[in-house]
Amino acid sequence: MTALCVLAVSCGNSGQSGKVLYESGDKKIKVYESEVQTELEKSLDAQGLKANEVTPEQLTQLKQNIVKNIALNRAVALDGKDKKIDKEKKYVDSIESAKEGLLATLTLTAEANKASVTDEDAKQAYEANKANFEKKEDTVKLQLVVVPSADKAKAEAALKEATANPANFSSVVQKYSANAAKTGNGETPEITASQLSQGYGPISQAIASVQPGQVVNNVVTVGNELYVIKVLEKNPKGLIPFEKVKDSIKNQIRTQKRQIETQKYLQTVTDKYGLSKIDDAIKKH
């Protein structure tokens, strides 16, 4: 749990105002759009990312997680107030330390964000490491509605909706899939052709002539489960095109550069404030 309200002496709803994104049934807990946006920016900033560098789905999930974290933190803090923990000396004494820790974290983030990565940086890394971007066999990504085999009518209803509007497949997953709570929008990771044929032969056969973006026009049975299937990607074996891996390469390089910038900054601060011999000084006490 992220300690989002550690610096608010009264905590509660922290004097926030504006659009409410969540309100508990007893109206004691509210989460405001402005604070969610602040935490979102901090989270992305800590990774050196901008909002347009993550997918809409990832952004939505991140916002949902932030809302839940704020609400839970706020509830725990309110319970702490009821128990008068905010009146205890250790709480009061911890506030300045918490402020100092937050300032240090934001300063480190600002220094790390000096690292920049260009498309050319990624292209050079790609060209120098092409063997790392070779697919040994064809792969696919799918989106699935999964229904128990005893509920064929439900599977057929899902298929009818999915084929009528393939672009709305995620909503069909949420409406019909038995494990939607666990799988989210039903998307699979990249699956190799051999993995699919060995573990899910009927699905492998069903998607053979289906193009990305299309829905298989029949319900597929595998064991005790029925599947409604949308093909998201079909990727041939061989060298993965640069554009497809550019963003992941840039993220890897960015992470490395941020670590370097952070270490450089910490060394600068260590020298500036004479901390290089801190171990020896501590031992004398």
Describe the structure in your own words.
- By secondary structure, the chain is an alpha+beta fold.
- It contains 11 helices and 8 strands.
- A 4-stranded antiparallel β-sheet has the order 5-4-7-6.
- Helix 1 (33-46) crosses helix 2 (56-82), helix 3 (89-112) crosses helix 10 (242-272) and helix 4 (119-128) crosses helix 10.
- The longest helix has 31 residues, at 242-272.
- It is flat.
Query: Mean of residue pLDDT?
Result: 89
Total strand segments: 8
Strand line-up of the largest beta sheet: 5-4-7-6
Low-pLDDT windows of residues: 1-11
- Helical run tally: 11
Helix content: 40-55%
What share of the residues does DSSP label as strand, in percent? 5-15%
Query: What's the shape?
Result: flat
- Biggest β-sheet strands, sense, barrel: 4 strands, antiparallel
Order of helices and strands: EEHHHHEEHHHEHHEEEHH
**Over the alpha carbons, how many angstroms does the gyration radius reach?**
25 Å
Quote the distance from N terminus to C terminus. 36 Å
Structural class: alpha+beta
Layout of helices and strands:
Blueprint: E1 20-23, E2 30-32, H1 33-46, H2 56-82, H3 89-112, H4 119-128, E3 134-135, E4 139-148, H5 152-164, H6 169-176, H7 180-183, E5 191-192, H8 193-199, H9 201-206, E6 220-222, E7 225-235, E8 238-239, H10 242-272, H11 278-283
Antiparallel strand pairs: 1-2, 3-8, 4-5, 4-7, 6-7
Helix pairs in contact: 1-2, 3-10, 4-10, 5-6
Short description:
This protein is α+β, with helices and mostly antiparallel strands and 285 residues long. The protein has eleven helices and eight strands. Helix 3 crosses helix 10, helix 4 packs across helix 10 and helix 5 packs antiparallel against helix 6.
